[in-house]
Automatic annotation (TrEMBL):
<keyword id="KW-0614">Plasmid</keyword>
<protein>
    <submittedName>
        <fullName>Fumarylacetoacetate hydrolase family protein</fullName>
    </submittedName>
</protein>
<dbReference type="InterPro" id="IPR011234">
    <property type="entry name" value="Fumarylacetoacetase-like_C"/>
</dbReference>
<feature type="domain" description="Fumarylacetoacetase-like C-terminal">
    <location>
        <begin position="36"/>
        <end position="236"/>
    </location>
</feature>
<dbReference type="GO" id="GO:0016787">
    <property type="term" value="F:hydrolase activity"/>
</dbReference>
<keyword id="KW-0378">Hydrolase</keyword>
<dbReference type="Pfam" id="PF01557">
    <property type="entry name" value="FAA_hydrolase"/>
</dbReference>
<keyword id="KW-0479">Metal-binding</keyword>
<dbReference type="InterPro" id="IPR036663">
    <property type="entry name" value="Fumarylacetoacetase_C_sf"/>
</dbReference>
Length: 237
């Protein structure tokens, strides 16, 4: 080993974790996931079903950890410490670049592509946290809480602004809506979020869910769909 190799060699005290990734549809390429942001109550009908005023207000966000991603072709493991786990189908926005204070008219330039995802929620733990005025992490950021299909680049699917978004469980429609019903559109979410955080390449934004969220149990099959983007299936085990 020469001196230069010795100087450049990094030693870790423990093995570094693998970088979470999503597949890029139709390729062998992988998209490295940096952070996962989720926007809350972005469909009026879902805000109503959760007991909130659907009038437009500044968006609010929560995070999931990058390694909560469950890629397509993998089962969703029913989590412990909960008896009321819900599905929430969402359009997922993947960023190829970012920054701070991104102007609204430049926001879509940051988008690499789109996917279909599920914001899985331990609703009972979330409700307890809400009642106590505490953070939502136990209800939202648990292991495997972000099932997500492969990414579809903007060059293939454009920037979807309308079209059906739905979720089925065991062949029965549970959630249904249209992307045009989103209170905060994709450029607005990106621009607003960039005032709160420094957005980076690899960030994902789960863009909100329509009404009809409901519980799942082991053995169920969840199908999530967004017109013009994708349709993915996950079995609950």
């Amino acid at each position: 080993m020469n001196d230069m190799t010795s100087i450049n060699q990094t030693t870790y005290v423990i093995e570094p974790a693998a970088v979470p990734t999503l597949a890029v549809a139709g390729t062998k390429a992988l998209f490295p996931v940096h952070r996962i942001y989720c926007v809350g109550r972005n469909f009026a009908d879902h805000a109503i079903e959760m007991g909130h005023d659907p009038n437009k207000e500044p968006p609010f966000f929560f995070q999931k950890n990058p390694d909560t991603i469950v890629p397509a072709g993998t089962d969703f493991p029913y989590p412990g410490e909960s008896n009321d786990v819900h599905h929430e189908v969402e359009l997922v926005v993947a960023l190829k670049n970012g920054g701070d204070n991104i102007p609204l008219d430049k926001a879509l330039d940051c988008v690499y592509g789109y996917a279909v995802g599920l914001d899985m929620t331990r609703r009972d733990l979330q409700a307890e946290a809400k009642k106590a005025g505490r953070p939502w992490e136990t209800g939202k950021a648990f292991e495997a809480s972000a099932p997500c299909g492969p990414l579809h680049p903007v060059s293939e699917v454009g920037h979807p602004t309308e079209g059906a978004i739905w979720a089925k469980v065991n062949g029965k429609v549970r959630q249904t809506g249209d992307l045009n019903q989103m209170i905060w559109k994709v450029p607005e979410m990106i621009s607003y979020l960039s005032r709160l955080f420094t957005l980076k390449p690899g960030d994902l934004i789960f863009a909100g869910t329509p009404a009809g969220v409901g519980a799942i149990v082991r053995g169920d099959e969840m199908v999530a769909h967004v017109d013009g983007v994708d349709e993915v299936t996950f079995k609950v085990v």
